[in-house]
């Protein structure tokens, strides 16, 4: 009986942390936490040419942002060469592996012949029982796979799966340059790290019998396996950038909240009744592979946007302002109208978040507060910034200049009073004024926005709009 559940997330640092990898990490994390176990992070960086420090950083930063805190690691395969060489030597001594001296040209010739004869192009085991070893000739080390029988896998997602051993070749465990291969090192690492459950994408399913051979060759206990179906796009093809799926860090930079992305990822292949929105603790409490689907999940960007908007609306204005700071800094905005700590800004956030699905959308809808120079909507300016509007804006400017205190109620009385006296509709004055103050025709309540922006900034923006209109009239 296993005393402690131990799982691992073992990405290769050859690119960013993508959506599929993040979901695999999440399922490992939830299974460990649900069972009071340990979550291990291992970086599989034996691919020396493709592995980069930038990719390692992206993986670690992505997991940290998502809140998937590992208990042990990160461990790097590149620093474990001695352990791998020791295990290769052990297999050679036991007669469970052998040196193969076939050249790449010979292997290609064998492959071509097999295809021509309509046979599976697997290695024909030329060197398996070879006695004479050519001097100074490069070689790889191959594992002696069983020649007959079957290998069964009791998968926690897919059920019982049986592989015919005769279809599995004598695979390479050590390359000619002395570097170990994936299927070999993953077994050595999983044993050394006492991994009890291997949870990964089902694109690794065909690797499983080879790894079981190795466990048996070393007399090591075999872990339980769970192969999660891949994520597909709406066209049922494997998920890629063209489906809108990018790196975890890209979603962060586009204004998604980590808890929203985690919530969305857990529902890609796992369900708990009809429930859609989960806290992390609810995921941990209810996660089970009994509820993981055997079929591929479909990635839906619109549903992710909807869910992210749900989480944004649930956040307080104060929390959202903290989350907006990096976006403000990246745009060089600091709150020209009164600073990010203006007491009325929280009201503006609360008004705006109702229609926002991402932090970027939220900032875009209220960036007029932070800008020193307002850019007018060109389509609106053509119809609202006409010469006949100037007298109205000048009259409103005069009334607001004399106002003290500069309050929402006072602003509303001043503007409505002017329209009533002039026989105008409120929109005849309010819409050009809204464009002057915000640069757009749609915003939360105009009078409240003007109060939040503040008297000095509002007067300046109206004056700028008047000059702009006069410049257009003279052009």
Written description of the protein model:
This protein is mainly alpha-helical. It has 19 helices and twelve strands. The strands form five sheets. A three-stranded parallel beta sheet has the order 1-2-3. Strand 1, helix 1 and strand 2 form a beta-alpha-beta unit. Helix 1 packs across helix 9, helix 5 crosses helix 6 and helix 11 packs across helix 12. The model has no long low-confidence stretch (mean pLDDT 93).
Unreliable sequence segments: none
Which word captures the global form? elongated
Tally the helices: 19
**Share of residues in strands:** 5-15%
Q: Decide which structural class fits the backbone.
A: mainly alpha
- Mean model confidence by pLDDT: 93
Helix content: 40-55%
Distance between the termini: 86 Å
Radius of gyration using CA atoms only = 32 Å
Annotation, overall tally of beta strands: 12
Going across the biggest sheet, name each strand in turn: 1-2-3
Strand count, sense and barrel status of the largest sheet are: 3 strands, parallel
């Amino acid at each position: 009986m296993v005393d402690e559940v131990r799982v691992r997330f073992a990405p290769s640092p050859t690119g960013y942390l993508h959506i599929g990898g993040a979901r695999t990490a999440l399922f490992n994390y939830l299974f460990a936490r649900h069972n009071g176990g340990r979550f291990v992070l291992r970086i599989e960086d034996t691919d020396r040419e493709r592995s980069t420090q930038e990719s390692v950083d992206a993986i670690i930063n992505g997991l940290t942002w998502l809140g998937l805190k590992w208990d042990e690691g990160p461990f790097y395969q590149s620093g474990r060469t001695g352990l791998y060489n020791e295990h290769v030597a052990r297999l050679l001594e036991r007669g469970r592996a052998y040196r193969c001296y076939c050249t790449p040209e010979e292997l290609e010739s064998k492959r071509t012949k097999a295809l021509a004869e309509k046979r599976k192009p697997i290695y024909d085991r030329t060197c398996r029982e070879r006695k004479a070893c050519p001097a100074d000739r490069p070689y790889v080390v191959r594992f002696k796979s069983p020649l007959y029988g079957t290998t069964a896998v009791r998968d926690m997602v897919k059920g019982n799966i049986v592989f015919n051993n005769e279809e599995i070749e004598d695979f390479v465990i050590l390359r000619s340059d002395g570097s170990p291969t994936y299927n070999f090192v993953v077994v050595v690492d999983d044993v050394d790290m006492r991994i009890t459950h291997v949870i990964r994408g089902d694109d690794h399913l065909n690797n499983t019998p080879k790894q079981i051979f190795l466990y048996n060759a070393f007399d090591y206990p075999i872990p339980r396996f769970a192969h999660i179906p891949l994520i597909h796009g709406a066209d049922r093809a494997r998920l890629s950038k063209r489906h809108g799926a990018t790196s975890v860090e890209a979603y962060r930079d586009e204004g998604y909240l980590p808890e929203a992305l985690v919530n969305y990822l857990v529902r890609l292949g796992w369900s708990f009744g009809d429930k859609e929105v989960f806290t992390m603790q609810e995921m941990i409490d209810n996660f089970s592979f009994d509820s993981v689907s055997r079929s591929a999940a479909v990635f839906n960007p619109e549903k992710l946007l909807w869910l992210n908007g749900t989480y944004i609306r649930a956040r307080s204005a104060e929390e959202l302002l903290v989350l907006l700071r990096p976006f403000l800094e990246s745009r060089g905005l600091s709150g020209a109208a009164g600073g990010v700590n203006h007491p009325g800004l929280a009201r503006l956030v609360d008004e705006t978040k109702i229609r926002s699905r991402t932090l970027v959308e939220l900032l875009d809808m209220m960036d007029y507060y932070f800008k020193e120079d307002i850019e007018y909507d060109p389509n609106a300016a053509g119809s609202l910034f006409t010469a006949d509007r100037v007298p109205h804006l000048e009259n409103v400017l005069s009334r607001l200049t004399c106002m003290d205190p500069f309050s929402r109620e006072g602003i509303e009385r001043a503007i409505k009073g002017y329209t009533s006296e002039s026989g105008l509709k409120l929109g005849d004055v309010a819409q050009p004024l809204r464009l002057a103050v915000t640069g757009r025709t749609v915003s939360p309540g105009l009078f409240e926005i003007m109060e939040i922006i503040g008297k000095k900034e509002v007067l300046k923006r109206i004056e700028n709009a008047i000059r702009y209109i006069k410049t257009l009239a003279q052009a």
